[in-house]
Amino acid sequence: MTDAVVMRDVAVVGGGCYGTFYAGQLAKAKERGKARFRRVVVVDRDPSCRARLELGETPDRVFVAREWDDYFAELLGGAAPAAAGEPQDYIVPGEPGTPYDRTGPDRTRYVSFADWICPTHCIEPAVCPAIGSARTWEMGDAVRGLTERLRAAGEPVHGPALFVCRHHVFGVGTFAVDAVLAGDALVRAAGESGSAAEVLVGTISSCHGAVNLLRIGAAEGGKGRQKAAEAARGRR
Question: In whole angstroms, what is the distance from residue 208 CA to residue 218 CA?
Answer without folding.
Answer: 32
